[in-house]
C-alpha cells in the first residue's frame, strides 16, 4: 500500500513539474489580454496601441490603448479618446473604414482605454487615435495588418495534444501495471 502511495506522489510531482515548465509566464499589461503594444510619443503623451488577438483577422477586434503623460507618467484624466480606421487601395482611395468611436477608460487601471471594433476587410489598416484634452487635439497613427488566419495551427495543436495525452496515458498504465509472476 505504501509503495502505491509513493508511486502516486511521484506521478503528482511529475505532472506538477510539467505544468511549471510549460506554464505561460507572459505578463498581461492591459485589460483585454493585450500583451504587445506599439508605442509613440505625441505631444505631451505616450500612447501605446495593442490589439487582441495579436494578429487580427476580419471580425471583432479589441483595441487597448495605454495613454500616460511623458513627463509625470500619470494617466490621462478628463479627456476624450477616439479611434477611427481605414484601409486604402493603391490609388489612396478608402476601401473600408469606420467612423471615430469613443474609447472607454478602464476604471481599475485609468491609464488604459478600451475599444471593441468590427473590421470587415483584409488588408493594411491605418488606425487613428485622437486625444482631446483642454481643447487641444493630438493624433497618432498605427498600422495593423488584418488577414485571415490559417486553421492549420489549431489543427496541429490539437493533434499534438492528443498524441501527448496518449503517450502519457500509456506511460502511466505501464508504470502502474502490476508485475505478475509467471
Please provide a written account of the structure.
- The chain has 182 residues and is an alpha+beta fold.
- It has a domain at 38-146: Immunoglobulin-like, CATH 2.60.40.
- It contains 2 helices and 9 strands.
- The strands form 2 sheets. Strands 1-2-3-7-6 form a 5-stranded antiparallel beta sheet, with no helix packed on it. Strands 5-4-8-9 form a 4-stranded antiparallel beta sheet, with no helix packed on it.
- β8 (123-133) and β9 form a beta hairpin.
- The two termini are 22 Å apart.
- The model is unreliable at 25-30 (pLDDT under 50).
Instruction: Using the alpha-carbon principal axes, give the shape.
Output: elongated
Helix % is: 25-40%
Q: Give the strand order of the largest sheet, numbering strands 1, 2, ... along the chain.
A: 1-2-3-7-6
Tell me the strand percentage band.
Answer: 35-45%
**Structural class, please?**
alpha+beta
CATH superfamily of the domain at 38-146: Immunoglobulins
Q: What can be said about the biggest beta sheet?
A: 5 strands, antiparallel
Q: What is the C-alpha radius of gyration, as a whole number of Å?
A: 25 Å
The CATH architecture of the domain at 38-146 would be: Sandwich
Amino acid at each position: 500500500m505504501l509503495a502505491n502511495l509513493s508511486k502516486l506522489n511521484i506521478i503528482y510531482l511529475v505532472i506538477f513539474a510539467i505544468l511549471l515548465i510549460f506554464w505561460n509566464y507572459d505578463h498581461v499589461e492591459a485589460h483585454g489580454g493585450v500583451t504587445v503594444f506599439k508605442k509613440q510619443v505625441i505631444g505631451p503623451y505616450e500612447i501605446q496601441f495593442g490589439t487582441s488577438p495579436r494578429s487580427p483577422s476580419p471580425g471583432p477586434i479589441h483595441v487597448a490603448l495605454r495613454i500616460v503623460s511623458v513627463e509625470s507618467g500619470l494617466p490621462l484624466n478628463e479627456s476624450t479618446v477616439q479611434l477611427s480606421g481605414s484601409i486604402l487601395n493603391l490609388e489612396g482611395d478608402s476601401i473600408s473604414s469606420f467612423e471615430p468611436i469613443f474609447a472607454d477608460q478602464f476604471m481599475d487601471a485609468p491609464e488604459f482605454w478600451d475599444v471593441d471594433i468590427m473590421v470587415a476587410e483584409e488588408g493594411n489598416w491605418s488606425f487613428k487615435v485622437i486625444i482631446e484634452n483642454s481643447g487641444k487635439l493630438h493624433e497618432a497613427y498605427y498600422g495593423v495588418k488584418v488577414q485571415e488566419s490559417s486553421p492549420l495551427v489549431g489543427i496541429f495543436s490539437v493533434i499534438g495534444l492528443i498524441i501527448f495525452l496518449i503517450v502519457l496515458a500509456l506511460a502511466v498504465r505501464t508504470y502502474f501495471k502490476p508485475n505478475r509472476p509467471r
